[in-house]
Specification:
It contains 25 helices and 22 strands. The two termini are 39 Å apart. Helices cover 46% and strands 16% of the residues.
Length: 820
């Protein structure tokens, strides 16, 4: 292994140990690193011992860096912030905050009310405490009037830690997050930093030269400004496997470095052109705000330029190690960020894939005896195969990391990069010409860039429509093992001699990759599984039959769910700690329900029951339906004037899902599970949308009873006490008893009347609520009623997490270990 890369790996490992272990030991780790380094220098004549002490020194230095960063994070007031807490922020805008634009004026362009901005020199105030941050990411509501880059702003909103964005994305130290809020006050800076002024000039020039439809993508490509990008455009790029093109990454830096080196070859002496290109590239990276991925790529090129200027070879592995060491020394917490991991993994995969292809084609295909035409064709084929292998290697290295953090992969990227990368190169050339050249030449460059960007959008639409992307569960140990074995085997194939070992490792890795999903489907036993999922302030229940079919009741909250179960669906902010968002899982369908089903081998959903169309029950359905085929939907059909509910109905129509109204007396059977609808009654049909006296969807919640042998489960949605009393008057007493009861309306005092709880006679009651939610669910009076009714055990998802119950064929049931 190259020495610098080995040292970098040792420092990375030590850094991770320092962050996750007792950080108070970092001074001892620093002493250990110093002693080990001294011994390594003293014993340099003994190569093996010297390498061992160098590794120990790297681990000690990494632990010291990680320990220091951990200590700083623990004493920072940012570490005390929890999801949804109110705060105020004062900071300087790095880029212009665009004003809200009426939809009619966009010409089909982005109309998002939210802008993604980056603040510098930030002062954060929370509950009387103040702390300073070098930078902060924010999502701000677009103001009526734009705010220039370099202006100081006061913004109020709520905190969203990055670690609360879903399973797999949790950091051991919540030192990073973003503000969701709105601008309260603007203080335009008279002497804005000249870099901010230059960025503002470049942005305004692109606005003047390019059509509005292509300007957001153009600014993302050259200025790293993504605040104007429509989220739908970003999602299409992600589905096409080309979302990395919207960030200034190693690809952009590499293209710019190659172009600068080529142009400077006509002006600067050959040995010095790479150094000059590296200096220009460094200025450009600083100008756009030094994004971490661009900074790492610039460091790599600087090392390459130095090696070329000295006339020596440039070892890619050592350059990668130097870039990693610099990044960790500047910010030890960077190793926890997906961008750092994906950047280095992608570059490593790119090099490894190309190396594997070169080794596989080592046997000369181009012989001296070949005709010139055949020789050129062979070279072209070898270059194409090498490029394809490099793209495949980058995907193989980054896919597990993307699945871990974002639970999405896009194998289509192996193909789409062939078409997308040349178009980005053409677009960059045109955009730089538009920014740097005068008069007609600038307009010519802008026209060329516009053509390339429109072709890029067409390519994105084509590849996004292919079924080669989607959500996946976080990788399990077997999958990590299969990836490691496959990569190890591929690297072994690049070495001369003994190819059988490499083939055996690759075969074993691919075999594990195939077997892992199959084993997931074998997890079911001769029992039914019923789980009430921890989705925060919302409801979601999953039932798996003994034959492996799935039934879902509700899908949890969705993105933008406010702390209200009423009809207001827009985000709200206020100065008090009681207003804001329930950010525990964000989109529960994507972050909680879908991964839960994937981990248990689910391939489809046979029946989805929607108790009522409030966002804390319906919000996750869109993501869920996008990930699993759904055969049937059962729901009340209450005519709630909600855009989310209308989109849900449109989605059912577009996908051809069978829709059935939930009416009292309806019965469905799914394998051994018998489902009976207890409410709402037929008044819902005769009243044209709501029964007499009903003013809210809670009052027409679908109340369903599941029976498996002698076992009964009762789910009341958000039905109020009035509905419960109506059920007592309508149904026989033995029809309402249940072993397990899902307590109505998250434990609100307006549900769970004492006479209802007494009649149900449940042994176990489940309350699905979010931790420290703004409503105070479950209410103390509800808990007191449950105790008075003789309920033996109350399970709260806000404290105990997901509840899972197994039911035997005869109806015998038991609670199993809580699921993550």
């Amino acid at each position: 292994m190259p020495p610098v890369l080995g040292a970098a790996l040792c420092v990375v490992g030590g850094d991770l140990l320092g962050l996750t272990s007792a950080t108070i030991l970092w001074p001892f780790a620093m002493a250990l690193a110093t002693i080990a380094a001294a011994l390594a220098l003293h014993l340099r004549d003994s190569p093996t011992v010297c390498v061992a002490f160098c590794a120990l020194a790297g681990i000690g230095a990494g632990m010291a860096l990680g320990g220091q960063a951990g200590d700083r994070a623990k004493v920072s007031c940012v570490a005390e912030l929890r999801a949804g807490e109110a705060m105020a922020v004062v900071g300087r805008l790095r880029s212009r905050l665009r004003e809200a634009v009426p939809e009619a004026a966009t010409g089909g362009g982005p109309t998002s009310r939210w802008a993604r901005v980056r603040l510098e020199d930030v002062t954060l105030t929370h509950e009387g405490r103040r702390c300073r941050l070098p930078h902060l990411s924010a999502r701000l509501e677009r103001p009526a009037v734009g705010v220039d880059a370099g202006s100081w702003i006061l913004a109020r909103g709520h905190w969203r830690p990055y670690g609360d964005e879903g399973a797999g994305a949790v950091r051991p130290l919540h030192s990073y997050g973003r503000l969701y809020g709105s601008v309260v006050e603007v203080a335009h800076s008279a002497g804005r930093p000249w870099l901010a002024s230059l960025r503002t000039y470049a942005a305004s020039r692109l606005d003047a030269l390019l059509p509005r439809q292509t300007t957001p993508v153009a600014k993302a490509l050259v200025l790293a400004e993504r605040s104007e990008l429509d989220p739908r455009v970003t999602r299409r790029f992600a589905d096409a496997g080309l979302v990395h093109l919207l960030a200034i990454s190693g690809l952009h830096v590499g293209l710019l470095a190659a172009a600068a080196s080529f142009v400077l070859g006509f002006i600067v002496p050959h040995t010095q052109r790479y150094l000059v290109a590296a200096a220009l590239l460094g200025f450009y990276v600083v100008l756009i705000g030094a994004p971490p991925s661009a900074l790492r790529a610039a460091l790599l090129f600087a090392g390459y330029a130095t090696a070329r200027a000295r006339g020596g070879p440039a070892h890619v592995a050592d350059l990668l190690g130097v870039a990693a060491l610099v990044a960790i020394v500047l910010d030890p917490l960077v190793i926890l960020r997906p961008g750092f991991q994906l950047s280095f993994a992608g570059f490593s995969g790119l090099i490894a894939g190309g190396h594997v292809a070169s080794a596989a084609l080592r046997d000369p295909m181009v012989r001296a005896s070949m005709a010139p035409t055949r020789r050129r064709l062979s070279r072209c084929l070898r270059a194409t195969a090498t490029a394809f292998a490099a793209s495949a290697g980058a995907f193989a290295f980054t896919a597990p990391i993307a699945a871990w953090h974002f639970e999405r992969v896009a194998p289509v990227a192996v193909l789409s990069n062939f078409a997308g990368t040349p178009l980005v190169a053409l677009a960059l050339a045109g955009l730089l010409s538009a920014l740097m050249l005068p008069g007609p030449l600038a307009h010519l460059g802008a026209d060329a860039a516009t053509t390339a960007l429109r072709l890029l959008q067409e390519i994105v639409d084509v590849f996004a429509s292919l079924p080669l992307h989607g959500s996946v569960p976080p990788p399990q140990p077997m999958l990590w093992s299969s990836v490691a074995l496959t990569i190890w085997g591929l690297l072994a194939l690049t070495r001369p001699g003994r190819p059988r070992r490499g083939l055996l490792r690759v075969g074993t890795g691919v075999g594990l990759l195939i077997v892992a999903p199959v084993l997931g489907t074998l997890q079911r036993g001769d029992w039914t599984l019923l789980c009430s999922l921890d989705v925060g302030q919302g409801d979601a229940t999953a039932i798996r039959t003994r034959r492996g079919h799935w039934l879902l009741i509700d899908a949890g909250p969705g993105p933008g769910f406010p702390s209200s179960s009423g009809s207001g669906f827009g985000p709200r902010f206020g100065s008090g700690s009681g207003s804001g968002f329930e950010w525990r899982y964000g989109d529960a369908g994507a972050r909680k329900v879908a991964p839960f089903l994937r981990r248990r081998g689910a391939r489809s959903v046979d029946l989805f029951v929607l108790s009522h169309p409030h966002l804390d029950h319906l919000g996750g359905a869109a993501s869920l339906f996008g990930r699993f085929p759904v055969r049937r939907v059962l729901e009340p059909g209450y005519q709630l004037p909600s855009g989310q509910y209308l989109r849900f109905l449109e989605q059912l129509e577009e996908t051809g899902v069978e829709w059935r109204p939930a009416r009292a007396g309806s019965r469905l059977t799914l394998d051994e599970v018998e489902l009976t609808v207890l409410a709402p009654g037929p008044d819902l049909d005769r009243s044209g949308g709501a029964p007499p006296g009903a003013s809210d969807a809670n009052e027409v919640s679908a109340v369903v009873r599941l029976q498996i042998g002698a076992f009964r489960y009762l789910n009341t949605g958000d039905a109020p006490a009035a509905t419960e009393r109506a059920l007592l008057a309508t149904w026989p007493a033995d029809s309402l008893t249940a072993d397990v009861l899902k307590v109505g309306h998250h434990g609100s005092r307006t549900s769970s009347a004492l006479e209802w709880l007494t009649a149900v006679e449940s042994e176990l009651a489940v309350i699905s609520a979010g931790p420290e939610n703004r409503y105070g669910h479950p209410h103390e009076v509800t808990l007191a009623r449950l105790d008075s009714a003789g309920v033996r055990r109350v399970w709260r998802t806000d404290r105990e997490g997901t509840l899972c119950v197994t039911v035997e064929p005869d109806g015998t049931w038991e609670v199993i270990e809580p699921e993550a």
